[in-house]
Amino acid sequence: MPSARPVFKKIAIFGVGLIGGSFALALKKAGAVERVAGVGRSAASMERAKALGIIDEIAPDAAGAVRGAELVLIAAPVAQTETILAAIRPHLQPGTVVTDAGSTKSDVVAAARKALGDKIAQFVPGHPIAGREQNGPEAAIVDLYVGKKTVLAPLPENDAADVERVAAAWKLCGAIIHTLTAEEHDRVFAAVSHLPHLLAYALVDDIARKPHADLLFQYAASGFRDFTRIAGSSPEMWRDISLANQTALLGELDSYMQRLADLRAMLAAGDGQAIEAVYANAQAARHNWIRAIEAAEQQNRQGGD
What pTM does this model have? Predict the structure, then answer.
């Protein structure tokens, strides 16, 4: 239900694609913002975002975007974070809160400290756990965040009221707020997000490089499609994420490669019992995970925390 009075008179979004665009659309639907200013690298993309009603104005630069904004969201690839924050800093007024939507946090925090200096308290790191494989303004959807988690990684310097303002914005989008430290965040998502993307890209790349790739793709069915769905995501974005979380991702990749080596040894030895035990353990873990997700979704529908 739309709020009686807008929570924000103006928000600014750097990167009005799937993530930033969906954020804007959700806040507009909630009646929580009067005006949305957008900033992007492509003039055509920004014109499209305005034509779609995602933003109300195209800011000519960082100064124009931040002027009068109560909340600034950086929804660009993580490698651009420091440059954007450095451009924002001279124009950042007291009372304006900046947050981000990056899939890594330790590197973003380091970039923010370098770029913002004594204004670091105004930056509240965040990461909405939602997405699609499409990119650009056309990919934005109003309900992308409904029932999805958004992780905040507050800094010691943050004022509690500023953290709550960022949390409130995501809640208005329908998100459920979780809190982790930047380090915890990166360890968790190296395992459950960054490694799966690396594996999906590697598998499709391997198939595509085979001399009979056309034949293989001809017979690839739903299992292959489901396993490799995330390989349709933005290569630029996932390149940046992989490099930004390099240490944690390498650790998870080494662990996975050892498990593959174990399975290869079982297969070479014809040890069906050992292979089945691995498969059964994975099946049980996945079933338990799905049940936990379904229980959480049911609780959310019934108004639980």
Answer: 0.87
